[in-house]
Model the fold of this input.
Amino acid sequence: MMIMDLVAIRNDYKLKVLDECRVSHNPLLQFDTWLNEAIEIKANEPTAMVLATSTAEGIPSARIVLLKALSDEGFVFFTNYSSRKGQEIAVNPHVALLFHWIELERQVRIEGKVEKTSSHISDEYFQSRPFESRLSAIISKQSQVVPNREYLEKLWEGQLSKSIGSMVERPLDWGGYLVDPVRIEFWQGRANRLHDRILYSKKGVAWEISRLAP
Done:
């Protein structure tokens, strides 16, 4: 049974173009340019990215996390190491990221291998978070079943009463991950579904640039 007819929902993309002769030779610099453009136009959640992981058997799962740092080494995000994504990363470090800036009719697909950041980086970022968010990281056993909302709120309130006026330390099961990319694709929507797709593939320490059919 068809609940809703979605066939007629369609937009034509005409905002921008993407030319392989004009992009940066470094995909991380090209990404930085696109990210800054998304931030400048106040795109909704410009640092939000879909993170796809999978089990050792290849069963995938995906969720949205926030990009918190970009460097020559790759893309950094933070989470609970004991969460479902953390457990899957532990057995299969190959992941994919997806950014979608709908206001610019753009997306970026990234594939690579992930590893934990240093404890120093995790500590530094944890202490930069709002006090209340740090409390949530402490009390939440992410991805585990809980009885109800009230259970979480009581844990949070109990942690609040213990933590006021004291240094809130980072839990050992919470920290950062760095995604080292090996494949980055930039997608620009174009008219008539003839989209621009520019692919960077890592070859040793260099990047090879090619155009893909839409």
User: Anything to note?
Assistant: The first strand starts at residue 48 and ends at 54. The CA atoms of residues 68 and 207 lie 24 Å apart. The two ends are 31 Å apart (CA to CA).
